[in-house]
Design brief:
Structural class of chain B: mainly alpha
Strand content of chain B: under 5%
Shape of chain B: globular
Order of helices and strands of chain B: HHHHHHHHHHHHHEEHH
Number of helices of chain B: 15
Structural class of chain A: mainly alpha
Number of strands of chain B: 2
Helix content of chain B: 55-70%
Shape of chain A: flat
CATH topology of one domain in chain A: Ferritin
Distance between the termini of chain A: 22 Å
Strand order of the largest sheet of chain B: 1-2
Largest sheet of chain B: 2 strands, antiparallel
Order of helices and strands of chain A: HHHHHHHH
Oligomer: heterodimer
Number of helices of chain A: 8
CATH architecture of one domain in chain A: Up-down Bundle
Helix content of chain A: over 70%
Bound molecules: fe (ii) ion
């Protein structure tokens, strides 16, 4: 895979086909939309379908007898403990996906035409911390008496969200900068999500969990700085 | 190439030499940004041809035992050809962008075929279907713009117009009005048989593609739009599928299909601009000559006839892969109000009640094709970038 942007024969724009574009615009000016209106019908219909829709799924009931016992103690503390559980499921899924994204990114950097071993080291460091976070969340889902192997609704949805980053990083044709951009998006969201989760755990009456999560947030802050720095260094380096 | 029988002297690549590796099949995709749109048109079309080669050979194997093994052997190659071709579409194409390309294939290739087709009724049928795929392109373009915020012309590269045709909301007909008369195998030109096999295969894969990707969309209107258009593509398969003579023996159908594959790879190889892809078309042309020769041997054995009875006669020039804008524009102006009645074509005022009733019921809870395209006019860089006038 080659590095960065390159001038070439991109044929997607109208300036690459002026005559055809003229003909196309001529057709557009002659043959008008047959259905009157604008995008408002689409928006209205979407709103209606949203109002009719069933939810994507549910937060599972705590399963084990041991879990039941614990959860009836711990879970009673908050008003709607399933909210915290759902968000913890989300974090577990996100961090687990993050480990795989960093694995893919490391392969990408190693395959680039100028492999940057310092960057590989940084990525490996972040990858290992994502793994720690994943295990940390799994442990605390268990302390709440719940099942860390279940896919909660928020875990499911965050998997959909992560598909773009996954497709970007695993495509052999994308370059390091394009993929660092995907990681930047991941880390920005990761960061804010940990902050939110800590607040949620505190509000739900789980100060011990919140305390453990603060350590993860510190590490996430460091991930964000590292990713931004690597991107800046690489991009600015190419234009100066 | 003016005679197919002439090129049969070329035995092509022997079947046992038609080999692939996994890495080769899942090779480098083309560039969505830098390759010519017609390279992608050929790729989509030939994937359709190959998957139809599988379909036909499975069909034959279901009704006859004696060819089970040779068909299985050739099918394995067709499978790997299809894979190597279809995997050339890169993952940066969203399913909706690939859909735009599928409709471009339907429009540009059907238009080329309609002009080459010597049988006036068959040609009329291609023009009829053409105006529907032309309209699908418009509806999907509106969807792409309004769902993903992308310009369909980035895919079409200026070759194909983006305006309404015969409205999609009116494509839904009672099945009795989707059947067509077939050619008579004794009288029809080889190219007529080739065209029917080609366009049926292409429409089949379009149907299967929409049917498979429709549920991948989250947007309820996109899901419904795919449901609507997939149904029309099934009608198109019904329509084009009835053009071939049902009296043809399975051996005749097999011969025509391999001849079609030969003709199509020759057309692709002749016009391909990407050298890597051109080499693949040439390689597969040789593979198909191998298949055609095997089919000819079985034809001689089983039917005790000369394959030249089927494959003789002149062939017109290769399928032309180029913008058919002016032809499409003419057909649109002259035939947009045609409707079908039984196997014939009538003015929209005479459309049978059976189709009107059928369609009114389907459309009674709303039509995504209309909702997503209301007021949509293509503009360079999407409708959001249209300069305030
Ligand atoms: Fe992180
Ligand atoms: Fe084939
Ligand atoms: Fe279509
Ligand atoms: Fe079609
Ligand atoms: Fe074949």
């Amino acid at each position: 895979m080659a590095h960065a942007a390159k001038l070439g024969t991109n044929v997607t724009g109208v300036q690459m086909s002026p005559k055809d574009t003229e003909s196309l615009l001529e057709a557009v000016n002659e043959i008008h939309p047959d259905v009157p209106g604008d995008t408002s019908g689409l928006m209205r219909e979407r709103a209606e379908r949203a109002s009719e829709a069933e939810r994507i799924g549910s937060v599972p009931l705590p399963g084990s007898a041991k879990g039941m016992l614990k959860s009836s103690m711990d879970m009673l503390r908050g008003k709607s403990p399933e909210i915290l559980l759902d968000k913890m499921g989300e974090r577990l899924a996100y961090e687990r996906n993050g480990v795989r994204l960093y694995d893919a990114m490391i392969a990408k950097v190693k395959g680039s035409d100028t492999p940057d071993s310092e960057l590989v080291g940084t990525l490996q460091h972040i990858r290992d911390e994502e793994y720690e976070h994943m295990m940390l969340v799994a442990r605390h889902i268990e302390t709440l008496g719940a099942d860390p192997t279940a896919q909660t609704p928020c875990a499911d949805v965050v998997g959909v969200l992560g598909m773009g980053a996954l497709q970007t990083i695993t495509d052999p044709r994308t370059n390091v900068e394009q993929c660092m951009n995907a990681l930047l998006t991941i880390e920005l969201a990761d960061n804010a999500a940990w902050e939110m989760l800590i607040e949620l755990a505190e509000a739900g009456g789980h100060p011990n969990i919140a305390q453990d999560f603060k350590h993860a947030l510190d590490q996430e802050n460091d991930h964000l700085v590292k990713v931004k720095t690597a991107m800046r260094r690489s991009l600015i380096g190419q234009v100066t | 190439m003016t005679q197919l029988t002439g090129i049969l002297d070329n035995k092509g690549t022997p079947l046992e030499k038609q080999q692939f590796t996994w890495k080769e099949m899942a090779g480098q995709p083309i560039s969505k940004l830098d390759d010519d749109a017609f390279t992608r048109v050929r790729i989509i079309l030939m994937n359709g041809v190959e998957t139809d080669a599988l379909r036909l050979k499975h069909g034959i194997a279901r009704i006859t035992g004696q060819l089970r093994q040779p068909l299985a052997e050739i099918r394995r190659v067709e499978q790997h050809q299809a894979t190597m071709i279809n995997w050339l579409i890169g993952a940066d194409h969203s399913p909706l962008e690939t859909t735009i390309a599928y409709e471009q294939v339907a429009i540009e290739v059907t238009a080329a075929v309609a002009q080459n087709e010597p049988d006036p009724y068959q040609a009329q049928t291609y023009r009829y279907g053409l105006l529907e795929d032309f309209d699908h392109l418009y509806r999907y373009s509106a969807m792409l713009d309004r769902l993903e915020g992308k310009d369909p012309n980035n895919i079409l590269q200026g070759y194909t117009d983006i305006v309404p045709g015969r409205p999609t909301s009116q494509h839904h007909r009672h099945p009795e009005n989707d059947l067509r008369d077939s050619y008579a195998k004794e009288d029809a030109a080889l190219i007529t048989k080739i065209h029917a096999a080609l366009i049926t295969g292409a429409e089949y894969q379009t149907h299967d593609y929409y049917q498979n990707i429709g549920p991948l969309f989250a947007d309820p209107l996109a899901r419904q739009l795919y449901a609507e258009i997939a149904s029309v593509e099934e009608q198109h398969v019904t329509q084009y599928g009835s053009l071939a003579d049902p009296q043809e023996t399975f051996m005749e159908k097999w011969l025509v299909h391999e001849a079609m594959e030969v003709y199509m790879y020759a057309s692709c190889a002749e016009q391909e601009t990407n050298p890597r892809i051109k080499a693949m078309w040439e390689r597969f042309l040789d593979y198909e000559l191998g298949h055609l020769n095997i089919a000819c041997e079985y034809f001689k054995q089983l039917e005790r006839r000369d394959p030249a009875e089927i494959l003789g006669g002149p062939l017109p020039k290769m399928v032309e892969f180029k913008s058919q804008r002016s032809f499409v524009r003419k057909v649109l102006a002259a035939e947009v109000n045609l409707r079908s009645s039984g196997t014939g074509y009538v003015d929209k005022a005479q459309e049978p009640q059976s189709s009107l009733d059928y369609r009114n019921q389907l459309n009674s809870e709303g039509i995504a094709a209309d909702i997503v395209s209301a007021g949509y006019q293509w503009a360079p860089g999407t409708e959001l970038m249209r300069k305030a006038s």
